[in-house]
Amino acid sequence: MTMASSNTPIPVDDVFNEYESSLKRQKSTTSKVWIEMTKLECENKNELKAQCNHSSSNKDITQYTIATQPSPEGVPSIKNYKFDADECRKAISTFLVCGKHSFRTVEEPGFRYMMRIASPNFKNISRHTAARDVLMYYAKERDRVKEELAKAPGLICLTSDNWNSEHTNDGYICITAHWVDKDWKLQKRIIRFRALFPQYDGLNIADELVLCLSQWGIDKKIFSITLDNASYNDVMVSCLKNRFRANRAILCDGAFFQVRCCAHILNLIVKTGLELADDVVGKSQNGIRYIRKSGIRRKRFYDVADKSFHLNVTKKLRQDVCVRWNSTYLMLESSLYYKDVLDYWGQRDKDYQMFALSNEEWRNVAILCKFLKVFYDVTCVFSSSNYPTANLYFRGVWKVHKVLLDTVKGPYSFLTPMVKQMQEKFNKYWAEYSLISSCAVILDPRYKLNYVQYCFITIYGIHASDFVETILSNLRLSFDEYVKKSKSTSSSLAGSSNVSDKNPVDSGLDEHNDSSADFGGYFDESDDYKRYLNESSTRSEKSQLDIYLEEPELELNSQIDVLDYWSKSSVRYNELSLLARDLLAIPISTVASESAFSMGKKVITPLRSSLKPKTVQAVVCLDDWMRAKGFLAEIGCKKDDEDDEDDDDDDVSSVAF
After folding, report:
1. What are the DSSP E strand ranges found in 418-457?
2. Where does 82-136 show beta strands of DSSP type E?
């Protein structure tokens, strides 16, 4: 095995000097290959030769490979290498999908050279073949996901959102399925990402959704759908409810069917308030924009912050984005961190003095920032990439409601107009909170009914009991429906078992029993009497829901996995755990579907605007499904500290697999 380079030095232009350090850095022989090989001395320092420790004869090293997994003794082994063309093509499909690469990549000289070096047996493929491979890969994975949905032990919740591509002007719909699997783990998969045909009204979107559910075979397993506040969604939900009722495929008469995206509502509330915020926000925006606009000015600012004020300058001044209110909060937070530096700058830079804040304005910034932090923290929970369970919804909404009530009565008059506008928006969407959020938080063993009562009392006082009774009544009705459903399933199984276990001799005796004619038809009251006793005992016994509510709550701020709790409690609370499994799986925001649009923007680019809708769907869905399978963990994809120690300026956080 020989690695040689030319003896003739290659002149390097000054502009490339920054790369010289990486060329000069020497790599130590830390690879596990050296357990199997011995390095040989060479007269030519530019050559590297090695000999296999297991053989004195010369063999073609290309026929062997070092196993990626060590042997039981912990030592890597050499094994025969066999080229698998199908696996190689599948790996290329994965590369194209995860990296959002153009199919033309496989025709680039650099890619083909890389594949020739990596595997001389690989045959080049065209972009058309690569596209077909991705579609075939999608079809296989789609069948696997369809099987997972069919095996889902409970009901399935949906999120749906729409998006317009700026490059094609096409409207796209994204539908994501959420459910709890047999191991009580929350799962989510994108099941549709397709272009919509005009008109984009509620009826057409309802037709698209019904078609999708029918194709996936889950049209009778839907529990809820989470949507934003677009007006056409109300029409769509009404249409879906009518169809599901006709097919008897809706539970609890649709009480839990429609969920409004809480992150979207929160965004509307805060944006409404910030429109009336004090002028300190505008001055802060312009001041930070002035400093960040010049690279020299920005460098001087951080030098002063570091050397004169000893601040950690890795935390940067943030500039807000007009369409994202949370960026306004982060901007104000960063300006408070650099308050002393900004005051210092205002005393020395005449152009900045018009943006400098007075002590009173700084006080207002601090108050506004503290006020917005509640909304920011709640938004972070609602929009978590881990897709939180529905029990976390209630506490966040209550905190928002409470801070609005307290602030409007508080001493800070400059906040009053803003908060009143926010209250109007809040009351429009959340005046009575969501039935779903209230029921879900009761099924969290840290909260239960007592926490709901406490929260409503702090908001509504003596009228709180009316809200609590309504919630508890709906929860009992839902639980009763699950009990009936469970008994119906059990009786049908028992009935089929009784038929198969019946003794044919006894059956013959029954048919010829003369006593049945004496009473004008045989009637054995024993079965009916047993049924009466069971119903009487059921009425007198406490239900699983009653027993659960009477047990003491867990510590309020304890860290628990609520699904794990119900998994372990499923034997004791059989029917109640079934309700908890479906209710807690309801997504509280449409983040799962909205995040797909970030992928869509990378897939549909100006250079790829002619992709067919089925190809776009295949790429977006495959990327999501591979993430769900733990693709990153499977290939051990993590930053190598040794190899990347000189690449601090590279932004690798945007690379998504």
Report:
1. none
2. none
Residues 237 and 287 placed together within one structural domain of the fold: no
Q: Catalogue the E-assigned strands of 55-202.
A: 64-66, 78-80, 156-164, 171-180, 186-196
Sheet of 171-180, strand order: 186-196, 171-180, 156-164, 222-227, 258-260
Omega before 199 cis (within 30°)? Answer: yes
Could you tell me if 423 and 571 lie in one domain? yes
Residue 482 and residue 454 in one domain: yes
Q: Tell whether the model's pLDDT for residue 639 goes beyond 50.
A: no
Maximal CA-CA distance, the chain: 117
d(CA 656, CA 490) in angstroms, rounded, equals 46
Q: Please give the distance of CA 168 from its chain centroid, rounded to a whole number.
A: 27
In a domain, 100, yes or no: no
Give me the residue label for tokens 């940067």.
316
Q: Do 338 and 236 share a structural domain?
A: no
Number of other residues whose CB lies within 10 A of the CB of residue 353: 12
Asked if residues 219 and 205 have their Cβ atoms less than 8 Å apart, the reply is no
Please tell me the distance from the alpha carbon of residue 475 to that of residue 430, in angstroms, as a whole number: 19
Q: Residue 228: which pLDDT band, with cuts at 50, 70 and 90?
A: confident
- Structure tokens that stand for 115 in this block: 């594949």
> 158 pairs with which residues across the strands?
177, 225
DSSP 324: B
Contact 246, 254 (CB under 8 A): no
Residue type for 63, please?
Q
Domain that holds residue 407: 388-488+560-586
Tell whether the model's pLDDT for residue 415 goes beyond 90.
Answer: no
Are the C-beta atoms of 415 and 370 separated by less than 8 Å?
A: no
Are residues 568 and 477 part of one domain? yes
Planar angle of CA 591, 593, 597, nearest 5 degrees: 100
586: phi then psi, degrees, rounded to nearest 5: -65, 125
- Residues forming a β-bridge with 324: 321
pLDDT band at residue 218 under the 50/70/90 scheme: very high
| pLDDT tens column, 452-464 | 999 999 988 888 8
19-28, 45-54, 222-231: the lowest-pLDDT one: 19-28
Amino acid (1-letter code) at residue 586: I
Buried (b) or exposed (e) across 68-100, using 16+ Cβ within 10 A?
eeeeeeeebebeeeeeeeeebbbebbbebbbeb
Same domain, 460 and 354: no
Least-confidence region, from 141-145, 197-201, 263-267: 197-201
The residue type found at 616 is V
